[in-house]
Amino acid sequence: MLVVGMVAQIAGTIAANAPLFLIPYLYLEQGLTLTQAGLIAATPAVGTTISLVAWGALVDRLGERAAMSLGLAGVTLGALAAGLVDGYLPLGVCFFVIGLFAGSTNSASGRLVVGWFPAHRRGTAMGIRQTGLPLGIGATALLVPPLASAEGIGTTLLVVAAICAVATAGCVLLVVDPPRPDRGEARSTGQLDNPYRRDSRLVRIHLASTLLVVPQFTVWGFMLVWLIETKDLSAAAAGGLVAASQLVGGAARIGVGWWSDHVGSRLRPMRQVAVAAALVMLLLGVVESTWVAIVVVVVATGVTVADNGLAFTAVAEIGGPYWAGKAMGWQNTGQYLVSAAVPPVIGTLVAHQGYAVAFATVAVLPVLAIPLIPREPARGADS
């Protein structure tokens, strides 16, 4: 189930983030401004944002297999249409549809891990599952820029559609929903009660995560063009570096997941990751040497994604078996709402103030997130 969930997450990530890695092609080869290219690249995040809670509710009601299978089928059709349309407006609409359906894999694959793994191994398992995101980004970085440059957007997106079709078949054939108590038992034990009414932990985690996602999407969205434009790397070399750096991101997710199991808390490590994210974004803004910049940006790729699995696990544990899907949906809604604004806003800031000011501005947000992260350990569900 962990492998199937990862594959589903990788496929959804490739489809939803392919537009981000089309920014250099649209900007450098097609003549769009960074703001225009950023707006097109933001459309999947907008689609995902408005559908995440609905997908989470569907997971809570129908189960993980149904949600992932339906969602990835929709992603496949959206990518297929995007590969066949003409014009940037229809392309943006297709990207929006991809985003609408891609949100299904977030809650459903997370629930697979929460449902099948005990609390003392759940952080590590969720960290492994979360590597689907950096692996998907790495695959996108390797696939999209060179393929778009050589063959155009249409062929690139048809390849993405084929990848998603394979993942859809895997979900239909292999996913088994994890066991959970029946609704009568859950009602008697309070597991049907709204966790948002018990305390403020979920809301505070949601708010902190929306701030921490800005450095992540800044690095993901602008690392490639930053390396090409300011460090004189070729598109192929920069794309390869982005792909390789995702391995660091995957290792960071697994490492902090294991760390959270070891210390018995998801949130103490999350606060320390926030401190590291602020520092590394400041370094990106001042580094001059190409080789030092490469090292710093690889580290930034790992640090800025490390908090996601911690927050996601904490939210699922607090939410419980009948609220985890919706809680994960709200968690990701805040993140995607903010991330949808990152490409156009940071693109405009870069265009007017330069990369150094943009990165330094982003560094402020993890600092603001630190006091929002709850102090108490976030153990829930069956811990």
Provide the number of structural domains.
1
Structural class: mainly alpha
The CATH level-2 architecture is identified as: Up-down Bundle
Question: How many separate helices?
Answer: 17
Helices and strands, with pairings:
Blueprint: H1 2-17, H2 23-29, H3 34-62, H4 64-84, H5 88-102, H6 104-116, H7 119-130, H8 132-151, H9 153-174, H10 183-188, H11 201-230, H12 235-263, H13 267-286, H14 290-303, H15 306-319, H16 324-353, H17 355-369
Helix pairs in contact: 1-4, 1-5, 1-6, 1-7, 1-8, 1-9, 2-3, 3-4, 3-5, 3-6, 3-16, 4-5, 4-6, 4-9, 6-7, 6-16, 7-12, 7-15, 8-9, 8-12, 11-12, 11-14, 11-15, 11-16, 11-17, 12-14, 12-15, 13-14, 13-15, 13-17, 15-16, 16-17
Q: How is this structure best described in words?
A:
The protein is an all-alpha fold and 383 residues long. It has a single domain (2-372), classed as Growth Hormone, Chain: A (Up-down Bundle), CATH 1.20.1250.20. The protein is 82% helix and 0% strand. The protein has helices at residues 2-17, 23-29, 34-62, 64-84, 88-102, 104-116, 119-130, 132-151, 153-174, 183-188, 201-230, 235-263, 267-286, 290-303, 306-319, 324-353, 355-369. Residues 377-383 have low confidence and may be disordered.
What keyword list fits this structure?
383 residues; mainly alpha; Growth Hormone, Chain: A; 17 helices; disordered C terminus
Summarize the structure.
The protein has 383 residues and is mainly α.
